[in-house]
Design brief:
Number of strands: 11
Shape: globular
Order of helices and strands: HEEEEHEEEEEEEH
Low-confidence stretches: none
Radius of gyration: 15 Å
Distance between the termini: 18 Å
Number of helices: 3
Mean pLDDT: 91
Helix content: 10-25%
Length: 155
């Protein structure tokens, strides 16, 4: 699987294009992906499950991601669960700060999949910020999204 992702990144030559690749449990899409020699930059990473998850299944995915994804700029933590809509939100435990601005990851999980975005906030306003990862970290994140989606009974 990692070789497939690597080959897809190698063939993704135009900047700011959509990147998609099918994995075992779902499909990864990166919005406005730019691939450079050692890294990638994107606005959003979206992972859609092949099969919809129950709230319990989506919760399992969230817990797996918090445990697995320990290589981003800030550690992640589950901050909200909404069982009525099967939604779970994960954010950076402690945002990075740069003077007045704070930067953090926000991960939203529902029965259909996972979306990852990064934000820059100052005061009460926030705007999308680029997700900058090494190529290896991007590949690992894709694998971790896919492995976190494996149902408990198949692990």
């Amino acid at each position: 699987m990692s070789q497939d992702i690597r080959q897809r990144l190698d063939s993704h030559v135009a900047p700011n294009r959509k990147f998609e690749t099918a994995l075992n449990q779902g499909k990864v899409t990166a919005t406005d992906l730019t691939v450079e020699k050692v890294g990638v930059s994107t606005r959003q990473i979206d992972y859609r499950f092949n099969e919809a998850k129950s709230h319990e299944g989506a919760s399992d995915v969230a817990e797996n991601l918090v445990r697995r994804v320990d290589y981003l700029l800030e550690p992640l933590a589950i901050i909200e669960r909404d069982p009525s809509e099967s939604k779970i939100q994960i954010r950076s435990q402690k945002p990075s700060s740069d003077g007045q601005a704070r930067r953090y990851y926000e991960v939203n999980i529902d029965s259909q999949g996972v979306s990852i975005e990064r934000y820059q906030a100052s005061g009460k306003s926030r705007e999308n910020d680029d997700i900058n990862l090494t190529r290896e970290s991007f590949e690992r994140l894709c694998r971790d999204l896919d492995e976190a989606a494996v149902p408990k009974d198949r692990k």
